Amino acid sequence: MTTSTPVPGDLTVPRPGPPAAPAGRRTPRQGGTVLAVPALVWYLVFMVGPLIAVFVVAALHWPGMLQPVSFAGFGNVRTVLDDPVFRDAVRNTAVQLAVALPVMIGCAYMLGYYVAQKPPGHRVVRYLLFIPGLISTPAKAMVFYAALSPDGLANGALESAGLGSLADAWLASPSTALACLIALDIWAGIGFTAVLFAARLGSVPDELGEAAQLDGAGHWRTMWRVHFPVIRDYVGVVTMLQFLWTLFGSAQHVLLLTQGGPGSSSTTLSFLVYQKAFIAADLGYSQTVGVLLFLAGLAGLLTIRRVFRQTY
């Protein structure tokens, strides 16, 4: 396609226009949509489908995989809310999140900041921090069991220090079982989280820290007043990941160490889902707790995102 440009003398000079798109050629937007179809189908089948199934099963009275199924409606919700074990699980989960998340994120950030300063041997420190992430969950549980059993390392250390009166059956005591599980959550997650923070802090320009130190700020103020606001959104992402892991993944630690006991002193919501589904064979109750757990996780994610969003 060409256009004409007038010139003196009533002459026109043809000027080339923009080339026309060949017929039948797809735009990049259309091609991207086609490539996204397999991932979209996978997400609908294996993510949205099971989520819908959870809500459906939560409305059923299903006393086992091979047992007859009947519609329960909101009866399961009333049963769950009236169950004292569920209330204990809610309290234990709230305590677990309120203690483990701040301690883990705060200590991991400070440890990551230290590693990001590249002290002598910082590469070795990075590998050492990754060790808990390389150990399987049963192995980590066995380490804590060996340390906290009645004749384990913790009581042996107390006896050696002349504090034998403080020795206890830590995993079998209602007052300490949940605290032991929280300690395991923190130990298992703090190193990996610190490595993530160190990687992100390594991309912050060195000029920011140098300028702050020239103005008289020490490492503590530089860490919290300069670097933390820069990676605030990343802290929110890591906090959301650890929140989800603690909320949904604590069942395996409870299963391996305390079985939710003594009584229900260490039962968490995620373990209650497992216990009711695979031990008590009450699938309706189990998935009702699963729905409430999903709603709690969604509310927690939105809250964390709002707290850690950038303000500039």
From TrEMBL:
<keyword id="KW-1003">Cell membrane</keyword>
<dbReference type="InterPro" id="IPR035906">
    <property type="entry name" value="MetI-like_sf"/>
</dbReference>
<keyword id="KW-0813">Transport</keyword>
<feature type="transmembrane region" description="Helical">
    <location>
        <begin position="127"/>
        <end position="148"/>
    </location>
</feature>
<feature type="transmembrane region" description="Helical">
    <location>
        <begin position="35"/>
        <end position="62"/>
    </location>
</feature>
<dbReference type="InterPro" id="IPR050809">
    <property type="entry name" value="UgpAE/MalFG_permease"/>
</dbReference>
<feature type="transmembrane region" description="Helical">
    <location>
        <begin position="277"/>
        <end position="304"/>
    </location>
</feature>
<keyword id="KW-1133">Transmembrane helix</keyword>
<feature type="transmembrane region" description="Helical">
    <location>
        <begin position="94"/>
        <end position="115"/>
    </location>
</feature>
<dbReference type="Pfam" id="PF00528">
    <property type="entry name" value="BPD_transp_1"/>
</dbReference>
<feature type="domain" description="ABC transmembrane type-1">
    <location>
        <begin position="90"/>
        <end position="304"/>
    </location>
</feature>
<protein>
    <submittedName>
        <fullName>Transporter</fullName>
    </submittedName>
</protein>
<feature type="transmembrane region" description="Helical">
    <location>
        <begin position="176"/>
        <end position="199"/>
    </location>
</feature>
<keyword id="KW-0472">Membrane</keyword>
<feature type="region of interest" description="Disordered">
    <location>
        <begin position="1"/>
        <end position="28"/>
    </location>
</feature>
<keyword id="KW-0812">Transmembrane</keyword>
<dbReference type="InterPro" id="IPR000515">
    <property type="entry name" value="MetI-like"/>
</dbReference>
<feature type="transmembrane region" description="Helical">
    <location>
        <begin position="234"/>
        <end position="257"/>
    </location>
</feature>
<comment type="similarity">
    <text>Belongs to the binding-protein-dependent transport system permease family.</text>
</comment>
